[in-house]
Specification:
The relative contact order is 0.13. This protein is 0% helix and 54% strand. Strands 1, 2, 4, 5, 7, 8, 10, 11, 13, 14, 16 and 18 form a twelve-stranded parallel β-sheet that branches. By secondary structure, it is mostly beta strands. The chain is globular.
């Protein structure tokens, strides 16, 4: 557990390689043992930044749930490569995920106000979801998904998106696909 839970607490994890938030199982555990939850928690802001793959596995949980003040409840994830979210991200105010390549979100991501997933900040990248994807915001808020400007698609096969405000799906150089 990384815990910056005091008033105004901020957690920043930066990696010159890959960065993974993943729980572990005790040594000698039987095959199929469910890993313990790995948590990154902060009152104000969580920043995860990687040069290579940035991953939050099924056993990963990232939260910023501040109550008042500025920059409270914000989560920022960025990678110069790609991002994979299989776990949970919960930001009281904002969740912002940016990837130079693909952004695969197959977990639960919730934000009190704004939720942004931008793939292909380097020009090419897809936003990918599946049946386990659940993206949500609350009243008066927005979800914005953006694929690469040179090459990129948004594929949300059987994904759930819920917002009390605007939903923007922008794939300027590719297709948008949603089924379910």
């Amino acid at each position: 557990v990384v815990n910056a839970y005091s008033s105004g607490g901020m957690a920043t994890l930066e990696a010159l390689g890959g960065l993974t938030v993943e729980g572990s199982v005790p040594e000698g555990s039987a095959a199929g043992t469910v890993p313990a939850r790995a948590e990154v928690r902060a009152k104000s802001k969580v920043v995860l930044d990687a040069v290579d793959l940035l991953r939050v596995t099924e056993s990963g949980y990232v939260t910023a749930d501040g109550t008042g003040g500025s920059n409270l409840g914000e989560i920022y994830l960025s990678s110069d490569s790609s991002v994979e979210i299989d776990g949970e991200l919960l930001g009281n105010a904002k969740v912002d995920i940016r990837s130079a390549g693909d952004a695969e979100v197959t977990g639960v991501v919730g934000a009190g106000h704004d939720l942004v997933v931008e793939a292909g900040t380097g020009g090419s990248g897809d936003v990918i979801g599946d049946i386990y994807t659940n993206l949500y915001t609350f009243s008066g808020s927005a979800i914005t998904l953006i694929a690469g400007s040179v090459s990129g698609r948004i594929d949300l096969t059987q994904s759930t998106l819920s917002t009390g405000g605007a939903l923007t799906l922008n794939a300027p150089a590719g297709d948008v696909f949603h089924s379910g």
